[in-house]
Design goal:
The chain has 303 residues and is mainly beta. The protein contains 1 helix and 21 strands. The longest helix has 14 residues.
Amino acid sequence: MKAWLLLLPALAFAQSASVSGDAEISGLIGGKPLVIRTTSRLAGAIDSVKWDGVEFIDSHDHGRQLQSAVNADVDGAFHVECYNPTEAGSVVDALGPTSTSRLEFLAVQDGVLSTRTRMAYWLAPGMKSHGQLAQNRELVSNHVLSKQVRIGRPGMDHVLDYKVTFTVPADRPHKYLQFEALTGYMPASFSDEFRFDAKTATLVPVAGKNGEIRDPIVLSAPSGSHAMGVFTPDRPPAGQPPVGYGRFEFPAEKVVKWNCVFRLKQDGPIEPGDRSFQMYVVIGTREDCRRTLAALTREFAGR
């Protein structure tokens, strides 16, 4: 969960209304309707994923959505959330109707939702997270997030085909980039946590604390009637950390989350430019998710 401490007087942050962020794509998964909705309030980030009449996203402030973000160092110093471009907006947007992030493009064509967003920093200058000052000097970053989302793929309907591209600018060279390629904040009713074991093609209950593992994650209702998880076929470059699949529970906020994280780290500055990641969000019953993860694992074996 995003943590923060406000050190500045309240400020007003407005987004240009030139591009509407209100859009919807819909389809059938397992013969039941799926509706995905974005909003201008969140600069085109996904506010709602509803399948079989059940809402899968606990959209609250401007951090709890189905969205993407970056955490990075500044001059070799890395502190969580202190240099944190975020698709849906900033902590100062709170529950308000606008986002500090700037939506530059949105289109729905041939069943594909496409957006391009210049991401706001999660913290405003002068704010703190976990006792550390924000490392950004502006409200809006030069980091751009582009995404393309489609319901289903050939021969596989229980997935969202979800591709993101982060455009990393050259204005502040980084030695460490942590891409939260995708995260999904879900209602606390999705309380059962599983990892997909590729060797046995089974979902195994996850025990232990919040954090990341190397196996794809599924969060499920206890009955197994509704579940969501994530898989990526992408692999990091040689010498880079493995993909992290995270799961987190926040009892006070009554929310749970999963994520898919890539990291790049080197001694010298990382080359700016585009970094693209392919994810498949699995959705349906718990068994639907298991079967889909098994199929994806077989398809991309050896990649």
